[in-house]
Amino acid sequence: MxxxxxxxxxxxxxxxxxxxVVCCGSGGVGKTTTAAALALRAAEAGREVVVLxxxxxxxxxxxxxxxxxxxxxxxxxxxADDAVPGGRLDAMxxxxxxxxxxxxxxxxxxxxxxxxxxxxxxxxxxxxxxxxQEYMAMEKLGQLRARADREGTWDLIxxxxxxxRSALDFLDAPxxxxxxxxxxxxxxxxAPAKMGGRAxxxxxxxxxxxxxxxxTTVLGGEMLRDVQTFVNALDTMxxxxxxxxxxxxxxxxxxxxxxxxxxxxERDALREASYFVARLEQEGMPLxxxxxxxxxxxxxxxxxxxxxxxxxEQLAEADRPAAAAALSLHAEVxxxxxxxxxxxxxxxxxxxxxxxxxxxxxxxxxHDADGLREVGRRLAGLP
Amino acid sequence: xxxxxxxxxxxxxxxxRLHVVTGKGGxxxxxxxxxxxxxxxxxxLRVLLAEVEGRQGISQTFDVPPLPTTEVRVAGGAQGGxxxxxxxxxxxxxxxxxxxxxxxxRAGGVLERFGAIDFATTIAPGVRDLLLxxxxxxxxxxxHDAKHHRGSPPEELAYDAxxxxxxxxxxxxxxxxxxxEVAGLARMGPIHSQAGSITxxxxxDATRVHVVTLLEExxxxxxxxxxxxxxxxxxxxxxxxxxxxxxxxDLDALGAFGGLDAPLNSDPTAAAKLSADLEAVGLDLPxxxxxxxxxxxxxxxxxxxxxxxQLTVLEQLGQPLVTVPFLIDGIDLDAVTEIAALLAEQxxxx
Lengths: 383, 350
Fold this sequence. Notes:
The complex is a heterodimer. Chain A is of the alpha/beta class. Chain A has helices at 9-14, 31-44, 58-63, 96-106, 110-118, 120-128, 132-151, 169-182, 184-190, 192-199, 202-219, 221-237, 241-253, 267-283, 305-317, 321-350, 369-379, and strands at 20-24, 48-53, 74-75, 88-93, 156-160, 257-263, 287-295, 356-360.
């Protein structure tokens, strides 16, 4: 049987063709930490990097030496003394409402912008719509890339993805919003009369009448007016709204983008990883490989769980509780390590051509740049 | 005089009909929600376990085929109790809702063709969440269908308790306050009143929001933040469920090898002590293995120190704490049953 290829993180980061690295995976698998560790490792290898995180983990900001992360890239100063010269690291955290506001301000007149920003429906969409975060992450990525191309600021962008209900939302939400804004329904809401006049068909008119009546009944006239104002504003503001969503989507398919699927050795997390891998393949998106975090290491692999357990019993009988406890701990550690290896083996058996790297869990949380460096070393497969 | 009740022990949550279970991603909230449903069913209750994130977590946890959009029995409990699973789907909920309140048989289809249903369930702010909670709300008020439950009087509620496997902590305050938010957007009309009733239930004494966490910094921080936000919103917070606690019962014995001041594997005294103990039962292990064992002891002690630190943080919340130990064999139906018993022992059920 062919061996599973190993994900060579350092080769990927060293390759100057790699311009975007997207970290995705289900919640709680260490996605944000992985993104930050990759970014730091790349910067210390001489790349000019910006990392876009989504999760507002204060701890992570601190570990990068920043008091806080906000919507603007801030320089991280603590690169290692022995880092390859020429590298730099900027970090930022996505603020979806501010990003949306910026888009509004950039694409409309001042007067129109003020009207939109004050619209209650806009305020709700920009701060709470479940797909806004995904869309704005894409929007921000597009902006960073444009700035990198224009100013030569960065040669690598590392992106963390939103903690979606499912990892796939990240790919779907922008398309969904894009197709909605381009679709028939929005025109109907925006200007029912105009569309009815143009379409002319009686059947369609009947449909429109029903829809309008229903909307008014269900939403109430006032909310419908808010929605209409918002939709009309969007329509004039985002001439190429869909094209922009499509462009960013296309950017992800280009050579130069690498997806890293982050998982943990748990059934659910690996199942999500499988979905994601299949989906990336289906979309023709470049998958660099899978990172399995939180692997249980075994420091004494020479002693089997069964032997340790038997010895622990003997030691307990011989009234040596400390050694008994140590061996019984080892038995559990070994069993857990074996279970984790099995889970990963089952995953790789289903995806034999996908490079994988296993990362041993840390006993402590990551607090500082040294902690991130340690994660980075493990990502690179170093002992 | 009876002793004062321990505020950090759950009191059974008598009178609570809606248990909302949240937690940071990866903390095991779906498992805990399933176990809580089983624990309640084992008290002889009819329990609805609802999920709202389209992940089919219930079907995976109970090892049953993927749930349709209707309510399906997934497990039996003691004393005639049972767990009914429901994977709430926003689109189905909307069409049902339109049918129920507006008798929109035909308009429903037209709305669908015009993309209005997609708009409402994916784009319109809050509507999706409102539909998801609304479906759970509807189930919580539904009366027995006499045809299906001949034994029960028809005026009786269909479910004695509902366990909602809710979105993760990062999204929970917004998810639960969607009623109030939408009531503000739709200032009158049927949506307004529906949203108002939901808000009322979520703020009432019949509801508790339980937060699942691990004893690690990030999940604990999220738990503290979520509890503060929920309190601010006036939502009744229930227990904090500590999942996957790793401290071993024989932890004190491990202390004999030394503290956390220096790595144990390079401590000659510790190595000598462990080697001597092992030799006493005829086990002669290579030096590297002995050092490896001490490394594992050190790691575990370090981890437990971290857990103790985080536990102190959680204790300061003043909410009941419930602890579920790390289960080495992973999560299967047996594990869910085991966790259900632990939850029951620690006062999560009446």
